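Structure ticket #2291
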Amino acid sequence: MGRRGFAAMIAAAAVAGAPGAARGEPGSGAIAAEVLGWLHRTNSAAIEGGELAAQKSTSARVRQLAAQLVGDHTALEQEVGALAAAHGLELPGTGASAPGDDASQGLAALEDLRGGTFDAAFLRWVADQGRQGATQARSAQARAQQSREPALTALLDRLAPQLEARAQAARAAQRPVAARTPPSARRRSSH
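Resolution: structure written out below.
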């Protein structure tokens, strides 16, 4: 899939503060701000995770997935930035999701891992964030449709299936990586 065709993953998603929080029905500008903020945090975490994997992975397949993750989320971030500017919104500086959310905790857990153990844990993180991100994108999709934001709705219409596909690709890549990881290393990575 191309960079624009597959814009985001999980992944690396900001579970805390995801779109769709029960706060009544804000106007379309508030919905756009909420969804674009979530996408921005998601992109930041995914880019950070991909860059980490590019440095630490011992698997060509994982490095390729990491490069695609960075490229896809960089392209999505450009779209998010353009939509934010069109709505007169200023997105916060880059950086991973808020401390304490699932994506940041997952990234922190990856920091100390090496080799095949890192690769297996990274692929699990990508798969988990992709699955969670797809669920969040579907929730955001419904909110964007209610707000009558066609550009945002179109972006989210492409996003959920792409996140699911990324999660599936990460799960498929886990099998060969797990086969290369010694059993003793697999036990250490599960702590």
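Closing remark: Helices lie at 28-56, 60-86, 102-110, 115-146, 150-180, 183-189.
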